Amino acid sequence: MNKPLKGFITYSHKDTEQKDELRERLAVMKQKNELVTWDDGQLTPGDEALQEDILKKVADSDILLYLVSSASLASENCNRELAEALNQKIRVIPIILEYCDWLRHEVSRFEVLPNKGTPIVEWQPESKGWQNVVNGIWEAVDKIRAQANIPSESTQNDQLAEWVFQQGNFLSMLKQFNRAIEAYSHAICLKPNDADVYNNRGAAYAETNKIDLAIKDFNTAIDLKSDEVGFYSNRGIAYHKKGKIDIAIKDYNKAIKLNPDYHGTYYNLGVTYEKIGKIDIAIKNYSKAIHLKPDYVEAYNSRGAAYMEKGNFDLAIENCNKVIKIDPHNAIAYNNRGLAYNKKDDHNQSIKDCTKAIYLKPDLAEAYYNLGIAYFWKEDYDRAIENYNTAIKFKPDYADAYSNRGATHKKKGNFDIAVRDCTKAVQLNQDNANAYTVRADVYVEQNNFEDAMQDYNTAINLNPDSTVTFNNRGIAYGKQGDYNSAIIDFNKAIQLDTKYADAYGNRGTAYNQKGEIDKAIADFTKAIQLKPNNVSTYYYLRGLTYSKKGYDSRKRDIVELAIQDFNKAIQLKPDYTEVYT
Predict the structure, then answer these.
(1) pLDDT tens figures, 278-290
(2) 48 falls in which pLDDT band (50, 70, 90)?
(3) What are phi and psi of 524, to 5 degrees?
(4) Residues 69, 74, 78, 79: is their CA dihedral positive or negative?
(5) What is the three-class DSSP state of 63?
(6) CA nearest 112: which of 68, 62, 76, 59?
């Protein structure tokens, strides 16, 4: 009679019912003396050395049966047991219970059950899925016995290859990717036709930004095993990183054709479409991923960011709220919500959210960056600079932080520092349109209009939809006395954003300078309507324009309108000294 193989079941206690189901379905294997199973429920509860005992049981096993769910993937104990199995060269069989992010976890590096990773919950009836799992475990046991009974040179090579492969997986789990690549390469020398090894080495190459080598390995994996969803998805990610978007999309679509119900592929497809500016298609794919996995926090975060790009800040906040409800410790969601509140001009709430994000993840550079933006708009320039400094500390190549810090130094009158920051931003990212715009603004303050116009033009070429750049270039034209060109730029800014109060106000100033008083008053009035509580300047300017019209026409009622505007400007900004004069 055969001596039974020993199997240890790794599971989250949230999946106890599924663990018991598996043990019941393996009863025939136990009766046939093929496999006996253990789990932590059979060990003595309350023992201080319980975890140590569990790891000893894992080390003494022939097979680790890892019940894969969102809970087990998040469990430190489950992953510790997996690491021990890899370290002890034990065969690992992941069993996919539900839709979860397993393709981005180390379990994806093994051949999973049920077939093609279709979760147990998806099988109708579920018993069909469980039987597929049992059949797969039978095959694994038969293979282990066959290898033990035929100690040929080729079998020994296969066993060594499997051990080295598992070592590579263990090193990847520890994020020691260069050492993992060495292990995978050794495994390939021993067993050159194992698709999974090529796939895993490709993933390790991708982690070290060796994208061409990664793609080469994924190609080989697909040649050897053309129906594996994960291989196409991984190659799609690599092509995305390489900037070959069309090929990436083709790979994702192939993965979807092989398994139309895997949420991760739709998420990756959404990320790729968002990169090329197809925001609506990206949102559609994020929504599909969420439909398949309702607790998919990454998809909610990305969909919220996509809504933000469309200017729908309320929907962005709604998606962030959903993430925070699912995962109250998700720093990215708090940071993204803080950014959305900044966009809505609710800077106090933005500060609260970004501060919470930093509490949860103290090295999150983007949170400090968004705090800097909030303090900038609150005119607390020193605190804005302090936060931009911290963002740059944690992310030294943060071009946007340099350009925004430059804009803040401009507000403080530190023009040379501002130019230096913007120049650094351009060096880090020559396509950073905002850096050119801010540097141009500084040049205007220095009356260096030639360099300013050159930078504005570059910024517009990089981002022809920038309302701020057209508005600011219009101001520069106005300062040079070219009011017609200024009005053309303000018109363009208003065309791009019909609610852009500053563009109306600045166009009103240009019309005033040209003597087109009625047009000027209409523009100042529109600016005030758009931002009634934040435009003391426009009340002042409209008051001046009314005064000009009033004195020219000798109409007392116009002068009274001017006085009303001056009073309103003082009410909004009591220290507005120009009004008193």
Answers:
(1) 999 999 999 999 9
(2) very low
(3) -60, -40
(4) positive
(5) strand
(6) 68
Q: Facing residues of 66 across strands?
A: 10, 94
Q: Per the structure block, which two tokens stand in for 451?
A: 């360099």
Buried b (16+ CB within 10 A) or exposed e, 275-304: eeebbebbbbbbebbbebbeebbbbbbbbb
Is residue 234 within 8 A of residue 265, CB to CB? The reply is: no
Q: What does the block give as tokens for 448?
A: 């260096």
Q: How far apart are the first and last CA of the chain?
A: 107
Q: Say if residues 211 and 205 touch (Cβ distance below 8 Å).
A: yes
* In the predicted structure, residue 201 carries a pLDDT above the cut 60: yes
As a whole number, mean pLDDT of residues 405-416 equals 96
Confidence (pLDDT) at 321 = 97
Strand ranges (E), 33-184: 35-38, 63-68, 91-96
pLDDT band at residue 59, thresholds of 50, 70 and 90?
A: confident
- Which of 577, 514, 580 lies closest to 545, judged by CA? 514
> What are the start-end ranges of the H helices in 344-398?
347-360, 365-377, 381-394
- Residue 367 and residue 395: Cα distance in Å, rounded? 11
- The structure tokens listed for 58 are 């894992």
The correct CATH number of 1-149 out of 3.30.70.2860, 3.40.50.10140, 3.30.2310.20, 3.40.190.10 is 3.40.50.10140
Angle at CA of residue 548, ends 546 and 550, nearest 5°: 65
Q: Closest by alpha carbon to 102, among 129, 69, 79, 77?
A: 69
Residues 23 and 9: beta-carbon distance below 8 Å: yes
Please give the pLDDT value at position 534: 52
What string of DSSP letters covers 125-160? Answer: SHHHHHHHHHHHHHHHHHHHHHHHH---HHHHHHHH
Domain positions in the chain are 1-149
Between CA 90 and CA 159 the distance in angstroms is 11
Judge contact between 408 and 385, C-beta under 8 A.
yes
pLDDT in tens, 121-171: 988 899 999 999 999 999 888 888 876 664 545 566 777 888 888 888 888
Global pTM exceeds 0.70:
no
Beta-bridged to residue 92, according to DSSP, are 64
Q: Between residues 3 and 205, which one has the greater pLDDT?
A: 205
